Amino acid sequence: MDLIKPGFGLVFWTIITFLILLFLLRKFAWKPILGAVSEREEGIKEALASAENARKEMENLQADNERILQEARAEREAMLKDAREIREQTIAKAETEAQEKASKIIEKAQAAIESEKKAAMAELKSHVAGLSLDIAEKVVRNELSNKDKQLKLVEDMLGEATLK
Fold this sequence. Notes:
By secondary structure, the chain is mainly alpha-helical. 92% of the residues lie in helices and 0% in strands. It is found in: Cell membrane; Endomembrane system.
């Protein structure tokens, strides 16, 4: 029962021992413990600050990456637009050149056809002239073979001829 009802001497020596222990802890242990705790606290603060800085830097990097990605997309779109324009210009140029070549070929063909036509007409005229001479020669021979017909032809021609 002594433990439930402690005596005055026990309380006195317990308090004295506690105060001595408290003094010794304060003199030798609390400074290193508090220093370690404050170092730990500073370390945690620095770690949190560096984590915050890393987070901000990551956000900046993500923003930069997004900006670079947008620029790359815009550049790609511009390049595709330029490529389409160049393709369209090339196609239009090729079509124009093809039309010009086709029109030149058509003009040459028309000129060749006209030339061939003129040559055929000249040949036909020459052939007709030759046939006409042959026919005229045969008619004149036939007409001149008889003396009466010759005289009549001369008189008809003289009658048709007028003196000017």
